[in-house]
Amino acid sequence: MARRASLFVAGLVASALATGGLCGALAAPAGAGTPSTKAPAAWDHRILPLVRFVEKHRKLTFEHPIPVEFLSDAAFKKRVRGDDAKVSASDRKAAQREVEELRALGLVQGAVDLIGAEKDLSGVDTLGYYDPDAKKMVIRGQDLKDTETRVTVVHELTHALQDQHFDLNKLDDATKTSGEDTALTALVEGDATRIEDQYVSSLSKSEQDTYDRALSAQTDANKPGAAGSDVANVPPILGLFDEAPYDFGEPFVDTLAARNGTHAIDGAFHNRPTTEQDIIDPVVYFANRKALPVAVPKLDAGDKRQDTPDDFGALTLFITLDARIGFDDALHAAESWAGDRYVSFRRDGHTCVRIGMRGRTAAATRTLGTALQSWAAAGPANAATVDVRPSLATLTACDLGGGTAPSFDTLDQAVTTMATRVEIIGELIRSGGPPAAATCVADHVVTDPTLAPLLQKSDLAKGEEQLLQSSVGKFVSACG
Fold it and tell me: Which of 154, 269, 309, 479 could share a disulfide with 166, CB 3.0–4.6 Å?
């Protein structure tokens, strides 16, 4: 079975360590929130083998069976997409405001139907889901003959098991910011993806190859923004935000397991990650470093606040910066992040955003400020300003029109490389390395200009493998 480039590289890192060593969320689809239904006395016989697989590999037991609803293709798509008539005028106004905020940050360009784009994303190639409100699973089709459907059912059964043991709705209700929501979703989806991957690995090689080809074809055909796809009208950044909990969730959960097995994963549901930085840098989560408080940025005379202040987050910061100033500087800024506060407002007929952020030291705050200044200088003239003080760097950006949003390939490369970094940290910790040194080695690997092209490959030549392994050994010595 072919692997993503990041997983392939992480495996080689583990091999390098063997020779060198380093010592010492969750919402149901639109229209799905039906009232909770009574649990059936027994499992639907069609999914029972998958139930047993999930229990065995997740090392938890279902408290009771859950209802399973099989829907025709048309009925399933209608259920997932929801009813356009239920979208209120205030919903559309809020969506337009969000588009303008994204334009101010250089992440989308031109007119965007955000509600339509989100519906397209939710409907494309979805084969099933678990509804935590109704406590039931909905499956597209009438049987489980298709491998992709069975894989999806394993993933969604894991969510049902999580719900029975940890109460997904209660966890979701406890989140207060978008960063908390992203971190929780990454934990929930990463855990389910981990079990899903174990199921795929249990299949015969021919089944794995067939599944892998289908998955690759699906991925290639449904790149957000790609002409002719079902998501042609979806801006690439929305697809990326949609996939981020999966991209970072699994390596985060794997890193937890590398420290203390399944117990560490269960523990994370009780002591959940609370920031995007926890997800992109598990060492921060292990150290229990909470975000520093930042006051809501003050607005200028005449500015009118829109919506409730929120946080921006280290991952969103990284993605925003990478599009203009490059991976290395964006990574250093994301690592320097220790807290922020975000507010949207109107100024002279334009939507603007103001973000105050800080590092844990004055030097870290200066790093943030320098990165933001470089980002502002690379954008449309007069659209953004940055104020840097010893304890706070403040970005103000307005939607004045103009500017170019990053392509899907640019965004995908940045996220893949950052996710590879998390996977490498996990492999180093699994091999006995101290977390701080693991982060140091991973940073060297993903920022080395010779190795960077290798991180995007799904397969490496022998010489490339040797280069990666020898480089890791060098970085281990430097970071030890």
Answer: 269
Q: What is the pTM of this model?
A: 0.89
Q: Could you tell me if 20 and 91 lie in one domain?
A: no
Residues contacting residue 113 through CB under 8 Å, at least 6 positions apart: 233
Q: DSSP code of 432?
A: T
Which residue pairs, CB below 8 angstroms and at least 24 apart, start in 379-386? 379/106, 379/324, 379/403, 383/104, 384/104
Distance of CA 14 to the CA centre of its chain: 24
Residue type present at position 339: G
- Residue of 425, 24, 60 lying closest to 263 (CA atoms): 60
Structure tokens at 463: 């010489």
201 and 345 share one domain: no
> Which residues in the chain land under pLDDT 50?
1-28, 30-31, 35
Q: Number of structural domains, the chain?
A: 3
Angle, alpha carbons 386-351-406 (nearest 5°): 70
Q: Are strands 384-389 and 350-358 parallel, antiparallel or unpaired?
A: unpaired
- The reply to whether 287 falls in a domain is no
Beta pairing class for 304-310 and 339-347: antiparallel
Angle CA 200–186–162, to nearest 5:
70
Domain boundary among 255, 274, 293: 274
262-321 pLDDT, tens digit per residue, is 999 999 999 999 999 999 999 999 999 999 999 999 999 999 999 899 999 999 999 999
Contact 137/388 with Cβ under 8 angstroms? no
Measure the CA–CA gap between 391 and 340, rounded to whole angstroms.
11
Q: Which domain holds residue 418?
A: 5-24+407-479
| 334 in the same domain as 268 | no
